[in-house]
Amino acid sequence: MRDRFEPVTPSIFSSLPEEHHYRGAPSPWAAMTRPGQTLHSFLEAPFFDANGDLWLSDVACGRVFRVSPDARWHVEHAYDGAPHAMRHRADGRALVADYYRGLGFLDGNNFVPTTSGLPDKPFIGLSDMAQDADGNFWVTDSGRSSLSDPTGCLWRFESSGQLRLVLSNIPYPNGVALSPDGVHVYVAVTRANQIWRISAALPASDPPMAGVFLNLSGGLGPDGLATNAMGWLAIAQAQAGRVYVTDSLGDPIAEIRLPAGRWTTSVVFAPDNPRRLFIIEAEHGSIYSAEL
Predict the structure, then answer these.
(1) Of these four, 87, 175, 185, 287, which has the most CB atoms within 10 Å of its CB?
(2) What one-character DSSP code corresponds to residue 3?
(3) DSSP label of 27
(4) 42 in Cβ contact with 30 (< 8 Å)
(5) For 164, what's the count of Cα atoms within 13 Å in the CB-facing half-sphere?
(6) CA 21 → CA 54, 86, 168, 284, distances in Å?
(7) Would the pLDDT of 4 be above 80?
């Protein structure tokens, strides 16, 4: 399948300015995931707001950045935590998925906890989130799950405030995205090097049927996901320095290889151009863009 990819060369949009490089002691998350390494940041989970600003979570250093269209970086939130992903709810509040602290809202630089899971099923380490048209948030809970311990979860944090456990048998669920028609939910299963797909219309109480949408290879496995209005699915292949783009059937459209850095963590399509893809590379703290 890979030979059918159209090669695409991305261009650099911006990189984390030196003034924002973290130089303190490694956070618990950084020490766990990158032992012995010094991280200036670890950027994840991009999204655009209504003004065209790009938001990024820095899970390693407890920060959330806003990058303006003219590539100016601003620290919007900084707190003692590990924000893996953040989104703005319809009421304007910033909902954050924190690896250690669960789901909560950011009030300036304060984390206001909302839920840490169910009484008999606590979160094991939140990763990513995606919002559907009804205001529900689909949240991945990876912890340290893998093929030897397939206990990662997919949750739905509903607009009513209720929390539902959707799946609990995933070997490291990571990125999550919805098809543009809201019918399907895609989950990046990093440690199995797969993309799973389920129906967004859940059964009354039982787990939904889950299937493999794509089998991948190389790198660590898929990380962040993004879809556009045409139904394309963009996949950041972790520790491979590349991104794959497929159509709604899983057929390849493009392969994007970065000129520098292998820590491709996440992707997002431009809100005003469904063919323009932004790619986050965490090793150098860079944002690339590619025209498809």
Answers:
(1) 175
(2) G
(3) P
(4) yes
(5) 17
(6) 18, 20, 36, 10
(7) no
Residue 245's beta-bridge partner residues?
234, 254
For residues 264 and 242, is the Cβ–Cβ distance under 8 A? yes
Q: With 0.85 as the threshold, say if the pTM is over it.
A: yes
Amino acid identity, residue 152?
A: G
The upper half-sphere exposure of residue 67, i.e. CA atoms within 13 Å in the direction of its Cβ, equals 23
**DSSP per-residue codes, 121-135:** EE-S-EEEEEE-TTS
* Angle (nearest 5°) at CA 104 between 144 and 39: 50
Dihedral, CA atoms, 124, 127, 130, 131, nearest 10 degrees? Answer: 50
- What one-letter code names the amino acid at 213? F
Q: Which residues contact 108 (CB under 8 A, 6 or more apart)?
A: 77
Domains and CATH numbers, the chain: 16-222+246-251 (2.120.10.30)
Nearest to 17 by CA among 285, 267, 289: 285
For residue 86, what are the β-bridge partners?
Answer: 96
The DSSP output letter for 149 is B
The tokens of 291 are what?
């025209």
* H or E, element range at 31: helix 28-33
Q: Tell me the per-residue pLDDT of 173-209, one tens digit each, with 9 for 90 and over.
A: 999 999 999 999 999 999 999 999 999 999 998 999 9
